[in-house]
Amino acid sequence: MVVEKSKVTNEHQHLTQTHDYKAGWSFYLVLAGVVTTLGSSLPVGFNIGVVNTPAELIQQFCYESLLERFNIDLDETWMNIVWSAIVSIFIVGGCTGSILGSVLADKLGRKNATIVTSILSLAGAIMFVLCRTANSVEMLILGRLLVGLSGGLTTSIVPMYLTELAPPSLTGAMGVACPMGVNVGVLVGQVMGLQDLLGKPNDWPYLLSVYALLVIICLPVLFILPESPKYLYVVKKNEAESLRELSRVRGVSPSLLTEELDELREEVRSNNDTDRYSMWAALKDRRLLLPLLLVCTSQAGQQTSGINAVFYYSQTIFRQAGLSRENAQFATIGCGAINVCTAVIMVYLLPRTGRRPLLLGSMFGATIILALLAAAMRFIDAVSWMPYAAMIAVLSYVLVYGFGLGPIPYFIASEIFEVAPRGAGMAWGSLANWGGNFLVGTCFPSMRDYIGAYSFLVFSAVTGALTVFHKLYFPETRGKTPTQVTELCNNGLRSRPLAVTNRNV
């Protein structure tokens, strides 16, 4: 017994003294990933995609409600305006939440700010359930605003929280959790809208709010999760609490965590003015110009690559390929399933392949496929096999998008920015994402009417320009600390991060 105890002690000392301990998956790390993915990120994707299926039913409700309460008989033009308000208020909420994300993440902490997003999401679900009973279009719009606000906060805060909890070797895998949740949410929204589930005429309030079941299950668990040790150490300057939370999330004794604490101390030494990074302050800091450009262009480019336009056209393309209306809907769900599957595969690929080759490969592939899709759509009636070519192009685009352009922009700010400006950097990136969504949502209908299939050439050109910019400036972040990445990018557009990166990778 004494020999066994001595052996354990010697092993403990050996690990401590030689830094052989390597952080990996732990109970709280896995729990945080699962709970935030299901309870925070999934509702964002659900609310992005679910409103399309019951659109006609919701418009009929709005027409009857306004006629009964205010004696307003909406014509087609005004109904389109009301519907646009219902759709776009979600994006307005998302932009607002992105701006507030930086403030809440630093004032309340990463975990508590995530709890706020869940409460807002629940409040939105309550509005959806009650709006028809109350005969209130206003409640429906308020609900969309609340879930949009929750969505903006989620995409700004959750990836940052998860990557700060993770050890360096797992930041990529944890960073994929948020976009994977969003993709699953879009897929769940499409599936729940099927006629056999919640697609019946009287079920649309329940369809809009069914995601709340997951939020209710996950919200209590959020309270027991650890706070981000990096936030506690760098922002709150509470070393003792930071060490306790770090020990809890790693599941090991504090004595084994000296290496991670040394990295935190080095980050504090490299940036002592940790209290000044509001969004505006980050924008004015010349050292953060290139990191902000990389994060914002990748986040905005995720939307301006035309992913929502491709999904919009998918059912039309599948119908022209000979599928029935029901089968075309199943094929569109299949596109969502591809998105989810690629996100799962990315959990394996990111730690092994790196961010730069996956992102650049995804951008370049999307550029080519979008151009081919434009050609296929332009000549879709010219030959009998062209609808099949367009269908293959749609499926290929969704696949390529999922291997880089979809998931990586969500979390890359957490690997480029140090802890102090990270909240502001994540907020700017999230704002760019929602802004790109708004731009495509407002411009695409007009583009579709005026230039038709050539709309995809516009998306191809934008994605091509994005590819060139990131090929010149985007550094590989795998295996580097945020402090090292910041040093590579601190000269703005005069930075040459690849000269160093290429030697290290």
TrEMBL record:
UniProt-annotated location(s): Cell membrane
Q: Kindly report the protein's main subcellular placement as a broad class.
A: membrane
Q: Name one GO biological process term.
A: fructose import across plasma membrane
Q: State whether keyword Transmembrane applies.
A: yes
Q: Which CDD domains match?
A: MFS_GLUT_Class1_2_like
InterPro entries according to UniProt:
GLUT, MFS_dom, MFS_sugar_transport-like, MFS_trans_sf, Sugar/inositol_transpt, Sugar_transporter_CS
Q: Which UniProt keywords apply?
A: Cell membrane, Glycoprotein, Membrane, Transmembrane, Transmembrane helix, Transport
Membrane topology classification: Multi-pass membrane protein
Q: Output a single Gene Ontology CC term carried by this record.
A: plasma membrane
Ranges of residues in domain Major facilitator superfamily (MFS) profile: 33-478
Q: Which GO terms describe its molecular function?
A: fructose transmembrane transporter activity
- Organism superkingdom: Eukaryota
Keyword check for Membrane, yes or no: yes
Q: Which residues cross the membrane?
A: 25-46, 81-103, 115-135, 141-162, 174-192, 204-225, 331-351, 358-380, 386-413, 425-447, 453-474
Which Pfam family, just one, is annotated for this protein?
Answer: Sugar_tr
In the record, the note on similarity to other proteins reads: Belongs to the major facilitator superfamily. Sugar transporter (TC 2.A.1.1) family.
**Which protein is depicted?**
Major facilitator superfamily (MFS) profile domain-containing protein
